[in-house]
TrEMBL record:
<dbReference type="InterPro" id="IPR054409">
    <property type="entry name" value="X25_BaPul-like"/>
</dbReference>
<dbReference type="Pfam" id="PF22058">
    <property type="entry name" value="X25_BaPul_like"/>
</dbReference>
<feature type="domain" description="Amylopullulanase X25">
    <location>
        <begin position="14"/>
        <end position="72"/>
    </location>
</feature>
<protein>
    <recommendedName>
        <fullName>Amylopullulanase X25 domain-containing protein</fullName>
    </recommendedName>
</protein>
<dbReference type="InterPro" id="IPR013783">
    <property type="entry name" value="Ig-like_fold"/>
</dbReference>
Amino acid sequence: MLSAVTASQQPAAVAAAGSMDSELGCASDWEPSCTRAQLALDPADLVWKLTVPDLPAGTYEFKAALNRSWDELRGRRGFPRRQHRL
């Protein structure tokens, strides 16, 4: 989950770019531009969310890539080089 204080502080897009992207239907893993890896901003609480009901059991890693590219990303604890683990 990623959030910001106001709607104006939100990026244009947030992707869960990671090792599960091919399972989501992307051409390959670690694709920040893949439409299926994009989170949706919930206007009620300003939290970016992605629901994946059919993700096969396993261990996956991802980074929150902003604006469909690797130009800006958020890894574990805010460090760009650390991945989040599912």
